[in-house]
Records
---
Amino acid sequence: MPNHLHPPDTQAPLDLPLVFITGASSGIGQALAWRYHRAGWRLALVARRVDEVKSWASARKISADSYQIYSADVADTDSIIAAGQACMSRQGLPDVVIANAGISIGVDTAERADLDVMARIYATNNLGMAATFHPFINAMVQRGSGRLVGMGSVAGIRGLPGHGAYCASKAAVISYCESLRGELRGSGVRVVTICPGYVDTPLTRQNRYPMPFLMRPEDFAERAFQVIASGASYRVIPWQMGVAAGLLRTLPNAWFDRLLQGRPRKHRQGQDSQP
């Protein structure tokens, strides 16, 4: 899949820090882009829906010389690697790389079609994250600095009925980032794992179950920005959700299963949004 760069040739000063964000066309990715822009950073924004990012940047009156858009699909390994390489060629080596792109679809393992959905979720949420980081690691190690940020989820802490693929993918994100953190220990490159609770985005608005401590994307982005700057290795946002998830983690399986009995499931692909 070819990568298209927008806009051409104009650049902000290279001494300004640079953040590379996937999934920048909506939700958390867009909110993070805006927070970093407000802090004076240059933006490298990755999305499949390039026109939506362009419209958003124009509506926000973001100067054309302060950002570049890279058209890529993180589920296509060569596509996202090419976007990272193009970013380094056009804008330089990022200071922060945020692997934010992800999808969430309910699955039923008894349905053959849902096995293909599971494969797509893993390709996006897991392999897509590794492929996002891949182009930058050696250069960051050589420089001796950088932040690689993996977007996990509290859904990765315990499995939820009907949500097996997403929960499993986010559990894998948490373990993968922990492994990568150990591999890069002492190199100057920090790996940061952020696990959002419920954030009001297109990904969550069709959920048909309670979403405690629901956050606005802007509020989440502010807290995530501070966590990334601090270099913390792992953080659940908001902290209340971290406490709740920790308590759920300690529940015996029988109690946990009973607690979730009758809970509405995540929508499967093509399923009507109404309960």
---
Amino acid sequence: MAPLAFITGASSGIGQALAARYAQAGWRLALVARRGAEMAEWARAQGLPPERWRVYAADVAEIDSIVAAGQACLAELGVPDVVIANAGISLGVDTSLREDLGVLARILAVNNVGLAATFQPFIAPMRQRGSGRLVGIASVAGIRGLPGHAAYCASKAGVIGYCESLRGELRGTGVRVVTIAPGYIDTPLTRQNRYGMPFLMRAEDFAASAMRVIEAGRSYRVIPWQMGVVAKILRALPDPVFDRLLVGRARKQRHTD
């Protein structure tokens, strides 16, 4: 039987590109998105045989919703070989404003709690089987904080920290935890940005690179590699130098923009 990939946020952007890449490689797909009907329409448009895919409509921000999707996948399709927690949202915030605290809470609910809830149903079955890949999609934005990006940067730093902790917990079980930190990828999300995006990468090219990293079971990788170099430089910069570099940089749009 063909291997199985469980992918959240599969209805657009990086998630859809990853779904297409795994489909091309002959994998079975468990596709998770809030808009289940649109997801199913996409799968049919790709010409995928019905037995090769299943759609689970779920809201990653709701723990019971995404856990139920994972449990349904286990019951209907079995234990996946790869679980990719890709669903995420990004909005600028100004936490001096009371209304933006709700936006912060929503981002953390999706990007952090939702990621852990995506993995939860599969951890014990994968450990029992002695194999599997749990893949967290982080971001280079999780490496250092950017003005106006507090919620997104905090959430992606959280993804990196959570996946590192989980990796240690599963060491020796045969289950690999893979953290992938995309740089700027050309998706509907990034097209709204109001600032320069160096080393912008096509989603299709990102998916091809990410699949190789996942198959190899790498613990952490920045894609594209050029942004990995930038990330190392950013980590090494003293705070005063880093702060001066950001003076005048455009901020990410808030929910009211």
---
Amino acid sequence: MSEYTLTASVRHDLGKGASRRLRRANEQVPAIIYGGEQAPQAIAVDKTIFYKSIEEEAFFSSLINLEVEGKSQQVVVRDLQRHPYKPLVTHADFMRVDATHEISMRVPLHVVGQDESTAIKEQDGEPHQLANDVEISCLPKDLPDYLEVNIAELEIGSTLHLSDIQVPAGVTLVELSHGEDHDQAIVNLTKAKEMQAEEDEEAEDTTEAGGNDQAEEGDKGDDEEEDNKE
């Protein structure tokens, strides 16, 4: 598990105008902490370390030590609100965690084993990742940065599902707890040429459909013109 530490101060001046002033003048990001037995608390997070942290994938699935005016508490990121077109975070939501209670988090899936795959190296196989992350449940101490999906032994035409993921001890996949029909596909392997042929065929069908529609519209126009002449 990766470790991150952020520093913050209590925010007393609230509202949109106050948040804008905070971001511009003080180089801080407005945020809130909630959860646990304590009341929600408005805070301002120091911008420099925060912006460096959000560049890393692991930050969003890790425990964060949040130091608010000298007092430390463990939190996870629950939401980031971003500016519609500028590379700015306008607000962050953090949730307190309790070491004795399980939490649900979405963690990324990392596909590995491509270099060892005979199907890829010798049979022109091409992997297709169907899910980028998955929801897990575990105690905070067991929270992984990501889960690996090993395709080294996957054959062409085969598919790996959630139940094929090797999860660490103490970690469960939330979807599988809902039944076998929630065992969704996450990676499949096809021949690269076959996939390209299917895509070309779909594109050709779309083009033909568009041409037929235009032809039908042209025929209708000709019929209407003849009717008007009559």
